[in-house]
Design brief:
The chain is an alpha/beta fold. Among the domains are: 4-122 and 291-310, Rossmann fold; 245-280, no CATH class. It has helices at 15-24, 38-47, 75-84, 99-112, 126-134, 158-174, 248-252, 256-262, 271-278, 291-305, 313-330, and strands at residues 4-9, 28-34, 52-53, 65-68, 88-92, 116-119, 138-146, 178-186, 195-202, 207-213, 220-227, 230-235, 240-246, 279-285, 346-347. The strands form two sheets. The protein has a nine-stranded mixed sheet. Strands 3-2-1-4-5-6 form a six-stranded parallel sheet, with helices on both faces. Strand 9 (195-202) and strand 10 form a beta hairpin. The longest helix has 18 residues, at 313-330. The chain is elongated.
Length: 348
């Protein structure tokens, strides 16, 4: 294949960065940008050396792929004509505003044999990639993703706006399905939920706790994993990764701790040795590589090699299904009143 021709539909706060990166990517031609706002569209097109289009109709037959970065409620309408023509589509997360629509889009892509990738960009975060290398079999996962209210993405709630990232990460890490969901949340600015907490119990036994809020005074994106080989924590913003694991002798023979205590005249002195002698610590700084660039490179490579992208439509549908179950769990529990309407556990 010659140069891969890609257009971007929606060049607002995030879409313009897709256009910027694609315009400088080797082997890629930014064929055009589409935005209903003429001033915005023309400005971005001029900045990155391409043409502005008011609609995508005239572009469909002149591209190999498209990036869809419009509001979530418009994902289906914008992506559908491209999928029907068999074009590769990268859609910003979440795939759709509800599970049924997401599933319909995924099935259309399958039927038309169109590549469908979804922008769960945290999969490309070097801190997450490093954490994944360091863990064994996950036993317990805890994710926290909180931020101030940005007054963007107000067409969806915090579950589809923020928590969806960590749902995808949890599904990817555990490689398992969700058996049960416990959830509750709150509406502040509205009209959708602005705070949500959920506990997922996976089919393989892993427990996952998720917290998402866009009502926090500061931003935080962290993931912690307790696995059969130790504990690893990653700050997805600073990209610092910390791991704690038993030393080789302790890992080989966990029961030796009893012998150590028995052989120590004053066992209280052992507390000063635990995190230096018996449990090892590693502080790592993940790469500063741009995750959005890596995501777009994966999209382009998937088009060239005609392979499945790292985050496929199937992956996105799985995350959407869990997100909808979290929402369903929230409807039976009121944070503000403390009332419980039936069993708030939503079981598959």
């Amino acid at each position: 294949m010659n140069s891969v021709r890609i257009a971007v539909v929606g060049v607002g706060a995030l879409g313009q960065h897709h256009a910027r990166i694609l315009s400088t990517m080797p082997g890629v031609v930014l064929t055009g940008v589409v935005d209903s706002r003429e001033t915005q569209g023309r400005e971005i097109a001029a900045r990155f050396g391409t043409q502005w289009h008011a609609t995508s109709d005239s572009l469909i037959d002149h591209v190999d792929g498209v990036v869809v970065a419009v509001p979530t409620v418009a994902h289906d309408a914008v992506a559908r004509p491209f999928l029907e023509r068999g074009k590769a589509v990268l859609i910003e997360k979440p795939l759709a505003h509800d599970y049924e629509t997401a599933l319909r889009m995924h099935r259309l892509a399958q039927f038309r044999r169109a590549l469908l990738q979804v922008g769960h960009v945290e999969r490309f975060n070097p801190a997450f990639e490093l954490l994944r290398e360091k863990i064994g079999k996950p036993l317990y996962v805890r994710c926290q993703r909180v931020s101030p209210y940005t007054f963007r993405s107000t067409d969806i709630g915090v579950i589809h706006d923020l928590m969806i990232h960590d749902i995808d990460l949890a599904l990817s890490l555990t490689g398992s399905t969700v058996e049960t969901v416990d959830a509750f949340g709150a509406v502040t600015f509205g009209p959708h939920e602005d705070l949500a907490m959920a506990r997922l119990r996976m089919a393989n036994g892993t427990v996952v706790d998720l917290t998402a809020s866009r009502m926090n005074p500061s931003a935080e994106r962290t993931i912690q994993v307790w696995s059969d080989t130790g504990f690893v924590s990653a700050d997805l913003q600073t990209r610092k990764v910390t791991s704690w694991a038993p030393c080789a002798a302790m890992a080989a023979n966990p029961g030796m701790i009893r012998d150590i205590v028995a052989a120590t005249p004053n066992p209280l002195t052992l507390k000063d040795e635990v995190f230096s002698k018996w449990i090892t610590n590693e502080q790592l700084q993940a790469s500063s590589a741009d995750a959005l660039t890596a995501e777009l490179q994966d999209f382009v490579s998937s088009i060239r090699e005609q392979r499945r992208p790292r985050v496929s439509g199937e992956d996105a549908v799985a995350a959407m299904e869990v997100a909808d179950r979290v929402l369903a769990g929230m409807t039976s529990w009121s944070w503000q009143t403390g009332s419980l309407q039936g069993d708030r556990r939503f079981v598959a």
